Amino acid sequence: MVDRKAAVADQLVAFLPNLRRFAISLCRSRETADDLVQAACERALASAERFEPDTRFDAWMFRILRNLWIDQVRRQKTAGVQDDIDDRHDIVGSSGERETEARLTLKSVSEAIDELVDEQREVLLLVCVEELSYRETADVLGIPIGTVMSRLARARKNLAAATGIVSMDGRYGPSGSRDE
Amino acid sequence: MMAAFSDETVMRYVDGELDDETSAQVEAALANDPELSRRIELFAETRLAAQEAMRRMLDEPVPDALKGAVEAMVAKAKAAPDPTLATWRVGSGRPHIVSPANDWMRLAAAACIAGALGVGAGMLVGGETEPGGLRIANVDADAVATGLRSIPTGSETTLAGAATRFKAIATFRDSRQALCREFELDLADRSTVTSVACSVDGNWVVRFAVNAPAGDDGYAPASSSEALEAYLAAINAGAPLSETEEKQALDQLP
User: Fold this and answer.
1) CA-closest candidate to residue A162, choices A101, A80, A119
2) Which residues from chain A sit within 8 angstroms of residue B52, using beta carbons?
3) What is the rounded distance in angstroms from the CA atom of residue B83 to the CA atom of residue B236?
4) What is the CB-side half-sphere exposure of residue B77 using CA atoms within 13 A?
5) Would you say B231 and B80 are in contact if contact means Cβ atoms under 8 Å apart?
6) How far is CA A165 from CA B34, B116, B117, in A?
7) What do you get for the CA distance between the two ends of chain A, in Å?
């Protein structure tokens, strides 16, 4: 029989850097992130019997951590209306001003990711960086898969526009392929 | 023909999340559609750029305070194994965790769990100095000693002079190579004592005993096996001996 608690415990320490990266991108404060990571680890060990050994450990941990973060944010928001993120305007416009700049450095990519609205940043991180599938990402975030796709597409267009990743002048010829 | 692929379709193509049929359509359109090619680049490049930019965060050292806290809770979790687990039995391949630095933590956990069970006189964690030797509940010590010496693991017997069933569960060596046996005594009051006794200079000494009222199924509740698991981990119990090894070891007892 698989000892789920041991399975969770064994993976936890090695997974800390990824967990911390996700936490930092959620709360944008290293200090808060570390508390959050610790709380998530505690929660994971306490509910280890709910971890299905043939599913992704990382996705399970991300969901625990994110749910804790959402709880915390809700508790802090004792007043005020939470704005529906899908109604928000994208931070990066498509003014074309940035698009004409030369491709920026990697640090600028970080900055651009940082400037994304939270909902776009988290899908970008889960899909593109942590390489979760859309389905897994939808499960982590508790949203429909269609919402994952729309947020992810917007996140990447914003990122591209902010960093000049793809210029609008058509310098990429008709040669693109997935297997580059 | 210019198929009008949505941004999401193009993105799914790049991310490998598009069905084969539509993927083929995208690829077919690609040859004559530089704009489509550019859009594919956008999604492919942003994925790579995000990966690249975020990679460095993994190299950031995890703060000692966080790492220490998580390591401590991991050690604690391992000391009190999942109660849904089957109790350790011969041949079950219980992972043998040897980490002396954490022993105090496991012992504390064992004592804590057993204490919570409200075990009476039978509870002798680390009781090597206990002069009582093999006295468990009111069961005749000599009868238990005979059982320990003669009953192979997996067998049971009724002890002479008492309505007590003796069941040999496992045999192993502790960290000091003393021969130890885990056994159960089903008492007349329908409770079960799970014990570990080790042979020291030819005498059996009870090291651990936890009494639990039997459930309807006749098995001790999980909490008592947790206490036992924690205890076994704390004394660095070796892997259970095989049938042959056990026979040899028992025969060699003084």
Assistant:
1) A101
2) 106, 109
3) 20
4) 27
5) no
6) 17, 62, 64
7) 44
Residues in chain A with CB shorter than 8 Å from the CB of B62 are 16-17, 20
C-beta of residue B181 within 8 angstroms of C-beta of residue B170? yes
Interface contact A165-B71, CB threshold 8 A = no
Residues 106-145 of A with CB under 8 A from B: 106-107, 109-110, 113, 124-125, 127-129, 133-134
ipTM for the assembly: 0.76
Look at residues A106, A102, A129, A117 and name the one whose alpha carbon lies nearest to residue A157.
A117
- Buried (b) or exposed (e) across B3-40, using 16+ Cβ within 10 A? eebebbbbbbbbbebbeeeebebbeebbeebeebbbbb
Residues B232 and B196: beta-carbon distance below 8 Å: yes
SS3 B196: strand
Distance between CA atoms of A39 and A48, rounded to whole angstroms?
Answer: 14
Nearest CA in chain A to B60: A17
Chain A residues with CB under 8 Å of B47 CB are 127-128, 156
Phi and psi at B201, nearest 5°, equal 50, 45
pLDDT reading at A3 higher than 60: yes
Residue B137 to chain A, least CA–CA distance (Å): 33
pLDDT tens sequence across B118-171:
343 333 333 333 444 676 766 778 888 888 988 998 888 888 666 788 888 888
What is the token pair recorded at B89? 């039995």
pLDDT digits (tens, 9 = 90+) for B68-103: 999 999 998 888 654 443 333 333 333 333 333 344
CB under 8 Å to B142, separation ≥6 — which residues?
A: none
pLDDT tens-digit readout, A136-168: 999 999 999 999 999 999 999 999 998 888 754
B-chain CB neighbours of A18 within 8 Å are 58
Spatial contact of B215 and B221, defined as CB atoms under 8 Å apart: yes
Torsion, CA A169, CA A171, CA A174, CA A176, rounded to 10: -110
Sign of CA dihedral B172, B174, B180, B185: negative
- pLDDT higher for B115 or A11? A11
| Closest C-alpha to B170, from B95, B226, B236, B91 | B91
